[in-house]
Amino acid sequence: FLLHGVDNDGGYSPVPSTVLRETLAHLNSTQADYWVDSFGNVARYIKERDAVSITETAATDSSITVQITDTLPDAIFNVPLSMRRILPSGWGAATAWQNDNLVETEMVHVGADTYVQFSAIPDQGPIVILKSSGTHVQDKDVYTAESPFLWQNYPNPFNPTTTIRFNLAKAGHVTVKIIDALGKEVRVLLDDEQTEGEHSLQFHADGLESGVYFCCLSEGHFHQYLKMVLLQ
Question: pTM value?
Answer without folding.
Answer: 0.50
